[in-house]
Design a protein that fits this description.
Elements (H helix, E strand, L loop, with lengths): L4 H36 L7 H20 L3 H18 L6 H23 L8 H15 L13 H20 L3 H22 L2 H16 L2 H23 L24 H57 L34 H52 E3 L1 H4 L1 H13 L3 E6 L4 E3 H22 L3 H6 L6 E10 L2 E8 L6 H10 L13 H6 L22 H10 L3 E7 L3 E9 L3 E10 L2 E6 L3 E6 L12 E4 L2 E7 H4 L15 E7 L2 E7 L1 E10 L12 E6 L5 E5 L5 H4 L20 E5 L3 H13 L3 E5 L2 H11 L5 E4 L8 H10 L8 E5 L4 H10 L3 E4 L4 H20 L4
Parallel strand pairs: 2-4, 12-14, 18-19, 18-20, 20-21, 21-22
Antiparallel strand pairs: 1-3, 4-5, 5-7, 6-7, 8-9, 8-15, 10-13, 11-12, 13-14, 16-17
């Protein structure tokens, strides 16, 4: 195996990515926490151990930057390490100035890392060069202190025990040839870099010989030998670096064991979260089955209660037959069951009861009823055990969900406090007093979301400082405090986290934005007066758009905002701007949570099932107490204020025809829409349950008023609404209603009425028709069907009826339909086992539209149903003569 320049470059890029996104953030976090302590408590005294801990972080940062070929960061980290070493050894007299420069250096390291992550070239900027000059001048004042001649270079020891050892461990843990090949390439690159950097001939020779060995020998046999050989050479080099043995010290006190930590890829956590959500959905499905089981058990008990009078009658018949007057003594088949008993005939009817086969059948019937009752009692016990098992399983799932969620969540303060040092450094550098206020610091946010937000928030905070806040003198002229304020806010809204970056500065000059848009030919001068505030602010997200008059080391408002929005959208979030002249600007970032278990209210409106989070609901009301539900008013008086009343099916814009609700909208759900109370009219509430909210992917753009979806136990996917974002829907309330509701009285889904006294036939027809997309109503006989048609006949599109039925047969039902004015044109098909011409002719004489004989083929039946419905629609549009 040989490595060309392309492969080595790929390995370097992999090492660079690992350093930028895994190692460097840990080292910087330690340095940032120390910088925050210095700013909050400048007089604190730090021990040699404190500085030693910081030195290790700066040294690791320097080494990683060297391997990642980030020379500017490497040089800066080296200077910081030298200053920390001088502070630890007490060779710096001006300790406050050293602390101040270290804080600026840490802030500069943050900027260099952020630029490297954006693949920007790390060209030395004037602030960077000035900082290096100040650090160099500070180090020139360090008093000389000879180091022990036998002391090992700390960077070489660290390189051998950490950098090289890590590569060896990766190679040792590889299991497949592909993994071994990648790990070996990483070891070769590490050996080449370290050998050249520290002038170690054995490492350079190792890097040169390994590719040749890999080309000649199987990797499975070669890897153990390579690891053993490298370990021997590594230990030999470390022995040379050992100082004289120190004086033995007493053993340190044992400390209690600490928790161990394990790095897990985010993708694995995502898969685990998805599995937990599927388990929760499966729990809903089991709960639904248990409810159906309970209803079936209740139905069984009801049927048994209906059998009670029949059982009593059977008992009466049984007793009557057993008496001399009820049945006189001899079996009907002439066989006497007591022939083996002597002198049975010596007894008369009053002295000895005689039983027949009818007695036995009646007795078996009674015993069967008793056994059914016992089975019902057993089912009750099983149902109770099942309910307890489901409750316990739900507790375990909730615990698993809580543990998984907590393992991903950290306080927002953990990210926000890192900006305190950066903002303070910006204020000192540019002589602009500023304070950073953190609100909602205890809000728990997904660690992955925090990592994704760091770069966008850094850009927005710097913009707020540079172009949002006015200079101190200008602020005083405007009656403001000379110290500007930047806010970082965080809060949870449903299944999303909302983070805001706000300032109390000058706001965005919309006129300047419009002027710049015209200069860039993004908009003509004629259209500008007709643009809304939101449309003008959208220009800020155009690549390369900036209203800054001059270029500085800080980004101008608008420069890079397209990148910020792209990063937010990549996380399935959105970015919004609000601004007021001389009051400030607020950037709002909203990102969905990966997994949310929220209490929700399921409501029904027409054919739609929708879910609304409990957090957004103020109250549920009965609309009949506020308005006429058949002719509702556009507003209602609720708690002393007039609030809009919006039918939910009309408020939501659907791009497909919807059938209007057949029943009045009798329930009002009062929700909070951006601080305003709005009543949503629905038919009824289905249930209030705790359900999993799953966010949509990025395949199709999702409107902001839909936060995601949830899956019910029945498998139905239900949209979850976000009332906080209903403002876009309420804005056009004054315009006419959408044309999709222009014909509310016409049903889109045809309704078929099935009339048959056979349960089997009704269920078979119901299944066939429902699978074909029809709405189905069942009736047991002609009388029940006629009552239904006279009450709700305008909803029925087709009647399929049997002929022979109790109370009212099919012919009688057909004749009644044809004599009824509102039902006269309703198509009727006869479905019967009578295939003779006499029955067929009578049906057509009474006005039947079709005649179908049993048994029937489902496909043939559906074809006839389609033809009958098509004929009805054609008759409906034909003008009368």
């Amino acid at each position: 195996m040989t490595l060309d320049a392309t492969e080595l470059d790929a390995i370097t890029q992999e090492a660079r990515h690992c350093f930028l996104y895994e190692d460097a953030p840990e080292y910087l976090l330690l340095l940032e926490q120390w910088a925050e302590e210095v700013i909050s408590n400048p007089e604190r005294h730090y021990t040699a151990e404190d500085y030693n801990r910081l030195m290790r972080a700066a040294h690791s940062l320097k080494g990683g930057a060297g391997i990642a070929q980030l020379s500017e960061l490497q040089v800066l980290s080296h200077r910081l390490e030298d200053v920390l070493e001088a502070l630890k050894e007490g060779r710096l007299g001006d300790r406050p100035r050293a602390h101040h420069l270290l804080v600026q250096g840490i802030e500069q390291a943050q900027e260099l890392l952020a630029a490297a992550k954006q693949n920007h070239s790390l060209t030395p900027t004037p602030p960077y060069q000035a900082l290096l000059a100040a650090l160099t001048e500070l180090l020139s004042t360090v008093s000389a202190l000879p180091s022990p001649p036998t002391a090992a270079p700390p960077d070489l020891r660290t390189a051998l025990t950490q950098t090289l050892e890590e590569s060896l461990q990766i190679l040792e843990a590889s299991a497949t040839d592909a993994e071994r090949e990648t790990a070996l390439a990483h070891l070769i690159a590490t050996a080449h870099t370290l050998g050249k950097q520290y002038a170690l001939p054995w490492l350079q020779q190792l890097a040169a010989e390994l590719p040749k060995l890999a080309a000649d020998l199987p990797l499975g046999e070669l890897v153990p030998a390579i690891v053993a050989e490298c370990r021997q050479l590594q230990q030999a080099e470390l022995v040379k670096l050992l100082p004289p043995e120190p004086t033995p010290t007493p053993p340190a006190e044992t400390t209690p064991p600490q928790d161990s930590y394990l790095r897990i890829p985010v993708s694995r956590l995502d898969r685990l979260g998805n599995t937990v959500s599927e388990l929760l959905i499966g729990q809903e499905r089991l709960t639904l089955y248990q409810q159906q089981f309970l209803r079936a058990n209740r139905e069984l008990k009801h049927r048994l209660e209906q059998f009670r009078p029949i059982r009593d009658q059977v008992q009466t018949v049984y007793d009557r037959l057993a008496t001399p007057l009820g049945g006189r003594g001899r079996p009907t088949n002439g066989h006497n069951d007591f022939d083996d008993v002597d002198d049975v005939d010596d007894f008369d009817a009053l002295q000895f009861d005689h039983y027949t086969e009818l007695h036995t059948a009646l007795q078996d019937f009674q015993e069967l009823l008793v056994r059914i009752q016992e089975t019902g009692a057993d089912i009750d016990l099983l149902n109770r055990d099942l309910q307890e098992a489901l409750d316990l399983n739900r507790q375990h799932l909730n615990s698993l969900y809580a543990e998984l969620t907590n393992s991903r969540l950290v306080p927002f303060r953990q990210l926000a406090e890192k900006f305190v040092t950066a903002v303070q450094a910006l204020g000192d550098r540019h002589h602009k007093p500023v304070q950073l206020v953190i609100e909602g610091g205890d809000t728990l946010v997904d660690q992955v979301i925090l990592q994704q937000l760091k770069a966008p928030l850094t850009h927005l905070v710097r913009n707020a400082f540079d172009h949002g806040l006015e200079p101190p003198a200008q602020r005083q002229q405007l009656g403001k405090s000379p110290t500007g304020t930047i806010w970082l806010r965080a809060r949870l809204r449903g299944n999303a986290v909302e983070i805001q970056v706000a300032d109390d500065g000058r706001g965005i000059d919309l006129q300047r934005v419009s002027q710049k848009a015209m200069e860039l030919q993004l908009c003509s001068a004629e259209k500008v007066p007709h643009l809304s505030r939101e449309q003008i602010l959208e220009f800020l997200f155009v690549p390369g758009f900036s209203t800054a008059k001059e270029v500085s080391d800080l980004s101008g408002r608008g420069v890079g905002l397209d990148v910020v929005r792209e990063q937010v959208q990549r996380s399935r979030g959105r970015l919004q701007i609000t601004t007021e002249p001389q009051q400030g600007t607020t950037f709002t970032l909203t990102l969905p949570l990966t997994l949310s278990l929220l209490p929700m209210v399921l409501c029904q409106v027409g054919e739609l099932t929708l879910a609304i989070p409990d957090l957004s609901i103020r109250e549920v009301i009965a609309l009949k107490e506020y308005t006429d539900i058949r002719h509702p008013s556009p507003t209602i008086d609720w708690q002393g204020q007039s609030i809009p009343l919006c039918p939910l099916h009309q408020l939501l814009p659907y791009h497909r025809p919807l059938s209007a609700p057949t029943q009045p909208l009798g329930v009002g759900v009062v929700v909070d829409v951006a601080g305003q109370a709005v009543a949503l009219a629905v038919n009824y509430l289905i249930a209030e349950r705790e359900l999993v909210v799953k966010p949509f992917d990025q395949t199709v753009p999702v409107p902001p008023y839909v936060m995601g979806c949830t899956v019910l136990g029945s498998g139905e996917v239900v949209p979850v609404l976000a009332p906080d974002n209903f403002t876009v829907l309420l804005r056009p309330m004054a315009v006419p209603a959408s044309p999709i509701m222009a014909r509310p009285q016409q049903r889109t889904i045809p309704q078929v009425l099935i009339v048959d006294d056979s349960i089997t036939v009704r269920r078979l027809l119901d299944r066939v028709l429902r699978q074909a997309g029809y709405d189905v109503v069942q009736c047991r006989d002609g009388k029940e069907a006629l009552d239904f048609l006279l009450g709700q006949g305008d909803q029925v599109s087709l009647v399929i009826t049997d002929i022979e039925m109790p109370r009212l047969d099919g012919y009688g039902l057909l004749e009644a339909i044809r004599l009824s004015t509102p039902l006269h044109h309703l198509p009727v098909a006869m479905l019967t086992s009578r295939g003779g011409d006499t029955h067929r002719q009578k049906a057509f004489q009474l006005g039947a539209n079709d005649y179908i004989t049993k048994p029937f083929q489902p496909q043939g039946l559906l074809q006839k149903v389609t033809q009958l419905l098509a004929g009805r629609q054609a008759a409906a549009v034909t003008p009368s003569g």
